[in-house]
Amino acid sequence: MVRIADSRGVHWTAASENTAQLLFDTIERFLTYRADTMARIDKVLAQDPECPGAWALKGALFILNRQQSMIPRAKDALSKAAAHSGGATARERQLIHALSCWAAGDLRAAQTALDGLLVDAPHDLLALRLQHVNAIFFGSPEVLRTTMARALTDWHDDIPGAGIVYGMACMALEEAGAYARAERLGRRGAELAPDDLWCVHSVAHVMEARGDLSDGIAWMQKPESYWQDRGPMRHHLWWHEALFHYETGDMDQVLAYYDHRLAPTAPVGYLEMSNCASLLYRVDAAGGDCASRWQDLVQNCAHLAEDRALTFADVHLLIALAMAGEDTALGRLARDLSDYAAGGTSFDRIASARICLPLSQAMQARRAGRHGAAAQILRDARYDFPAMGGSIAQRDMLEILLVDTTIAAGQTRAARRLVNAYLDARPHSAPMQRISEALGVTGAPAGG
Ligand SMILES: [Fe+2]
C-alpha cells in the first residue's frame, strides 16, 4: 500500500497512485452530489479491494441513505474498512471510527470523533462534509455554526475545494441568522465551486430566510444540463425553488411546479418524500387544493413507514399519512414510533420521543376532529420542534401546522398571537399575511 496526497495535501492509503486518483475523483463526485458516486466507489474497490478510504466512503453513503435496511450494509463496509486499515493513516482510522459511531446511532460520538480528526487534518474535505451533514441532523444552529466556524480557521480561496467549504459555512451562518455574512461566503463559494449543489442550496436558504423571493427564483435558474446526473439533492433544490413560489402566495404555480418537478412517479427516498410532504402541507394550510397528490405521495413512500432510521423523515411521514386520510397506517406508525422511542437511548430515539410522539398524537387528534386537543399538544411541544433536525426552513412546516391547528380549534386569540410571532420572523410570507388578515390581526409585529 502507498500513501498519496490529494490536491489539498491530505494523504490517503491505496494500492497504487492510480487507484488513489480514482478515489480522489470519487470523493469529488460525492462532494458535488453525483448520482454515480456508489458506482464509482465500486469501481475503485474492484481495482483496489483493500482501500480503506473507499470502504469508509461506501459506509458513509449507506448511512446517508437514511434507511434502517441500509445500516447493516454500512456496518459491513465499515468493518471491511477497519479490517484493511492496518497500514492506513491515523486520520483514516479516525474517519472509520466516526462513521462506525454514526452507523451505531451515536451521532454525538461521531461528531466528537470528526471534530478531533479535523483539528489535525482540517483540509480533509470528506470528513468536513460529513461533519457538516451530521450537524444538520442535530437541529441546532449552534452546533452547525461552531463546527463550520472552526473549519474556516484553516481555509482560504487558494485551497482546492474552498468554495465547497464556503457553501457549508454559508448554510451554518444562515441558520444562525447571520444572513449578510452567509450571503457573502455563499456567493464566493458559488464562484469558486459552481458545480457544488450544496453551495447553491445554501444561498437559496439565505434568500428564502430574508424574503428575497424574486432573487431566489432567479438564483435557481440553471440550464437543464445542470441537474443531470445528480442524486436526490437536486430534488431538494427544486423544493427550494417551489418554496420561493409558495412564499409569493401563488398556490396554482406551486402545484404546477410540484407536478412538473417534485411529484413522485416511483417509490422515493426519505428526502424526496420529505420535500413533497413539506410543500403539499404548506399549500394545504394556505387553502390550496392538493387533490389526490397526498394519496399519490403515500403510495410511493409506504416502504418508509416500516423504517425507523431518521426522525426528520418520520415527522414528514406522520404529516403525509394524516393528510392523505390514511388513519390505519397513521395509527400503526404512531404505535411503531412509541415502541421505537421506548427502545433505547440513541440520538434518534430520544429525538423521536421529543417530537414524533407528540406529533403523532396531535395528527391523530386532528383526524378525529379534536382540534383543541391537537392544538394543545402542539403548543406543549413547541420548543421541541428543533428535535426533528433539518433546517429552519424545513422546521417551518411545524410552525404552520401549529397555526393551522389552532385556527381549526377556533382559538382565534391564540392563533392571532402565533401568526404575529410567525410574521415577526418571516414578514414576507404572503400565505401567512393572508391568514393574518383573515384573523384580523391588528397589532404590530413584535420586532416592528
Ligand atoms: Fe434546504
Keywords:
448 residues, mainly alpha, Serine Threonine Protein Phosphatase 5, Tetratricopeptide repeat, two-stranded antiparallel sheet, 24 helices, globular, binds fe (ii) ion
Topology:
Layout: E1 2-5, E2 11-14, H1 17-31, H2 37-47, H3 52-64, H4 71-83, H5 90-103, H6 107-120, H7 125-138, H8 141-152, H9 162-175, H10 179-192, H11 197-210, H12 213-219, H13 224-227, H14 233-248, H15 251-262, H16 270-285, H17 293-299, H18 311-323, H19 327-342, H20 347-367, H21 371-381, H22 392-408, H23 412-425, H24 430-439
Antiparallel strand pairs: 1-2
Helix pairs in contact: 1-2, 2-3, 3-4, 3-5, 4-5, 5-6, 6-7, 7-8, 8-9, 9-10, 9-11, 10-11, 11-12, 11-14, 12-14, 14-15, 14-16, 15-16, 16-17, 16-18, 16-22, 17-18, 18-19, 18-20, 19-20, 20-21, 21-22, 22-23, 23-24
Bound molecules: fe (ii) ion.
DSSP helix fraction:
55-70%
Tally of distinct domains: 3
CATH class of the largest domain: Mainly Alpha
Strand order of the largest sheet: 1-2
Biggest sheet character? 2 strands, antiparallel
Radius of gyration: 22 Å
Description:
- The protein has 448 residues and is an all-alpha fold.
- It has 3 domains: 1-138, Serine Threonine Protein Phosphatase 5, Tetratricopeptide repeat (Alpha Horseshoe); 139-225, Serine Threonine Protein Phosphatase 5, Tetratricopeptide repeat (Alpha Horseshoe), CATH 1.25.40; 232-448, Alpha Horseshoe (Serine Threonine Protein Phosphatase 5, Tetratricopeptide repeat).
- 70% of the residues lie in helices and 2% in strands.
- The chain is built from 24 helices and 2 strands.
- The protein has a two-stranded antiparallel sheet.
- β1 (2-5) and β2 (11-14) form a beta hairpin.
- The longest helix has 21 residues, at 347-367.
- The radius of gyration is 22 Å and the shape is globular.
- The structure holds fe (ii) ion.
